[in-house]
Amino acid sequence: MSAAVAVGILVAGGVFLILQRGLVRIALGFILLGHAANVVLLASGGMSTREPPLVGDGVPADTADPLPQAFVLTAIVITFGITVYLFALARAEGDDDDTEADP
Amino acid sequence: MSGLTMPLSIALPLVAATLLAVVRRPARPRRIVLLGTLGLLLAHHVVLLVAVADGAVLATRIGGWPGGVAITFVLDTFSALMLVATSLLALVCVWFAIAAGEDERSMFAPLVLVLVAGVAGVLLTGDLFNLFVFLEVTLMPSYALMSMSSDRARFAVGRVFVSISLLTSTVFLIAVGLVYGIVGTVDLASLAGAAADSPPLAAAGAVLLAALAVKSALVPVHGWLAETYPHASPGVTALFSGLHTKLGIYAIYRLYSLLYGGEARFAWIAVGVCVLTMAVGVLAAFGQRSMRSILSFHMISQNGYIALGAVLAAPAGAAAGIFYLMHHMVAKASLFLSAGAVEHRYGTGRLASFGGLARREPLVALAFIVPALSLAGMPPFSGFLAKYVLVRAAIGQGQYIAAVAAVAVGALTLASMIKIWQSVFIAKPKDDDRHEAPQLTAAPVGLVAPALSLAAVTVILGLTGDWLLALCEQAGRGLADYTAYAEAVVD
Questions:
Q1: CA-CA distance, B344 to B334, in Å (whole number)?
Q2: In a domain, A99, yes or no
Q3: How far is A47 from chain B (nearest CA, A)?
Q4: Taking a C-beta distance cutoff of 8 angstroms, is the pair B321, B304 a contact?
Q5: What is the pLDDT averaged over residues A80-96?
Q6: Which end of chain B is more exposed for a tag (fewer CB within 10 A), N or C?
Q7: Do B166 and A82 touch (CB under 8 A)?
Q8: pTM flag (> 0.90)
Q9: pLDDT at position B212
Q10: If you count DSSP H runs as helices and E runs as strands, how many of each does chain B have, helices first?
Q11: Whole-number percent of chain B with pLDDT over 70
Q12: Cβ(A24)–Cβ(A92) below 8 Å
């Protein structure tokens, strides 16, 4: 339940920011959306089992599913890369990052 | 033949990309490495296609890890066909880019090679999460290719392209999480037919398909394509037209047949989307004033045709759709390349700036009219055969509205192609002499040859398309029955 609420709030904030005109805000919106996706991925492995998934360490029934964690790591790296690219795009046009219609 | 060489399709372009990113000169060996790599890939993919032409499925686990843990690559007839088509297009489009001097931008070659590696990854992977990863691998270099030129309009275009792709990827990633939460696996082979008795999975699959529909520019989420594609440089537009949206379509074919295979309850929604896409794309094209924006809207319209093949029940529908996909990739890239040759020569693609090119540029005119007629579905070109098998499959399955729409939209496509033909190639030259510069006698053959060679392919496919049709039927059977696919992955 808490994961669902967190995803809802993150997506709401992300969508609000993406609909703004400034590219920096759009990029921040994508960061929030990316976090929402990461929470969904983590929740897909089950929220109740949280012990570190290390071999020979702890009870297998209590350890977290490592696969979604690997997914999230990959997704974080990708989102990070694209976010930096978005910021670079915002900067490439000088100080004004407004998204205007083409003349 | 075993599938052990499959990872080379990804490794080879990545190694070449690294090399070309570091070694910046001289230009000639760089071009040889670039074209040589793409040529080798094409040869490799043809060998792979021959190995799976009889419906066999090859699978390999990277690094020899046991099943369930390993990253698997799977090759069936459909993905092999796509591999051959995409690597052929990449080769021809890069050939054009070199002829037009587009490869002189320092990172062009490495970016294209990474894009090609990502495309091979999408087509080979047997795992939903890696599908997402490889889609990202194709997108990253595309962002840079899209906004590589520094004029202001293209930065704005780059924004649209990055934002829409990022949004799509995020939705896709969320859907992958949903699928994993419901089924506990992202292995494609173990998802086969799973949505039939699991409504939550069917809903998660719908989110996947929605994200892929954006990628494939299906109505009502098509606007971004016409906003962005015409503004990239001509060679890049042709490359993207052959690789990007087609990957979305490939994934739609794969996932639709895998998750919902033969389920007819919601087919009316999908048929509706396809018919709308066909109609909206072709009608919107009438309002456009430049060659490549007209062609971009036609691409949207044609994507509707191709997606229709995924929606019609396999194997007949899928076989027709896959044949249409093969024809469309060749014809559309040829059109973009001939339009690109004109634009490269005259510095504009606006219809109003031209006239009478047919006499001055007979080769370009030929390279345009052949794929244009093919796209509109005229015999004896491949478009006629493609449209015929698709309409026949639609009628055979009682989708009469879709069949009528396919025929009607074909006529409108022809009208639109005639509009370009008329104003660019036939009409009297305009009064202003800006384009009458004396050195412009005719475009060099090298610039037109890529478009001409693809035009030749569409003629050959139109006259002797039986072998490809047989391959497509084999691919369609593979999509209708995933038993062989699952067995290959488990072994």
A1: 15
A2: no
A3: 11
A4: no
A5: 80
A6: C
A7: yes
A8: yes
A9: 94
A10: 19, 2
A11: 95
A12: no
Burial (CB count <10 Å: 0-12, 13-18, 19+), residue B267: middle
3-state SS, residue A25: helix
Q: List beta partners, residue A63.
A: A51
> Does residue A103 sit within a domain?
no
- Residues ≥6 apart with Cβ < 8 Å to B327: B374, B382, B383, B385, B386, B458, B461
DSSP-derived 3-state class of residue B163:
helix
Q: How far apart are CA B193 and CA B196, in angstroms?
A: 6
Residue span of the structural domain in which A24 resides: 2-48+66-92
Helix (H) or strand (E) holding B246: helix B234-260
CA distance B225 to B219: 11
Q: What is the ipTM of this complex?
A: 0.92
Average pLDDT, integer, range B176-197: 87
A54 found inside a domain: no
Alpha helices by DSSP H, listed for B70-189, are 77-99, 108-124, 128-146, 152-183
Q: Rounded to 5 degrees, what are φ and ψ at B346?
A: -110, -5
A42: closest CA among B202, B167, B181? B181
Give the number of beta-carbon pairs within 8 Å between A and B.
Answer: 72
- Whether residues A71 and B166 touch (CB distance < 8 A) is answered with no
β-bridge mates for residue B127, sequence order: B187
Instruction: Tally the domains of chain A.
Output: 1
Q: Tell me which chain A residues have a C-beta less than 8 angstroms from the C-beta of B159.
A: 23, 26, 89, 99
Nearest residue to B309 (alpha-carbon basis) of B266, B270, B283, B276: B270
